[in-house]
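anyone seen this seq b4? input:
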Amino acid sequence: MIRARNPLSVDVTVPREDIALVAVEGHLDLDTATEFQHQLANQLHHGRRHFLLDLSAVPFMDSSGMNIVLRVYQEARGVSGSVHVIAPTPAVRRILDLTGVSITVPVSETVEDALALVDAVPEATPDRRT
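predicted toks r here
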């Protein structure tokens, strides 16, 4: 018997020119992480510097998902941007806390809270490491 997996759904909205609100729904794991990575890379390519990752509909995330969050965090920092996780489910929050990702990547309960954090940081010049 073949078990059907729920596909990953990634919905991107742009509340401001440099901000991508990325709502993810489904399991974020080895099978689905590539789609998530492509969506984030596309937003970076289009000039987004700040990423608000709404994980409220992600019941499970493994190390593949965590690695993508950390990768986009590093890339966003390179262009003076940021990454914020919004409303992770308890299981995802536990993984973020146990691995220390929540120390590096801020976790907010609402989109408004995350936007306030973005606005609280003064603009800086991009980090152009060679």
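The two ends are 52 Å apart (CA to CA). DSSP finds five helices and five strands in the chain. kinda curious what u guys think
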